[in-house]
Design brief:
Strand order of the largest sheet: 1-3-2
Largest sheet: 3 strands, antiparallel
Helix content: 25-40%
Structural class: alpha+beta
Shape: globular
Radius of gyration: 13 Å
């Protein structure tokens, strides 16, 4: 099964086309588990805190979940998932 929670860019020169882009209109929200819809979506950008990491990552939640739960807990959850998956 492909990763449905986060995507990434391998290089800044890619512009708006990520190397891997999870489905924007059907992926589960990592905050609540329900399907994300295009009318209630927020994209979060993150960068691992280790020294140099060649990739930049992003993930999506419902806008309403982001407002309710905040970014820090979700960022940590996604970063842990990235480490576990070896991405």
């Amino acid at each position: 099964m492909e990763n449905a929670f986060y995507g990434w860019f391998d290089d800044a020169s890619q512009g708006g086309k990520p190397t891997y882009n999870p489905p924007a209109d059907s992926a589960p929200c990592p905050a609540c588990g329900r399907k994300i819809t295009l009318d209630d979506v927020r994209t979060h950008s993150l960068m691992p805190k280790e020294s140099y990491v060649p990739r930049s990552y992003f993930y999506r939640t419902h806008r309403t979940c982001a407002e309710k739960h905040g970014d820090e807990a979700m960022d940590d959850f996604i970063l842990d998932m990235i480490k576990r998956n070896g991405d």
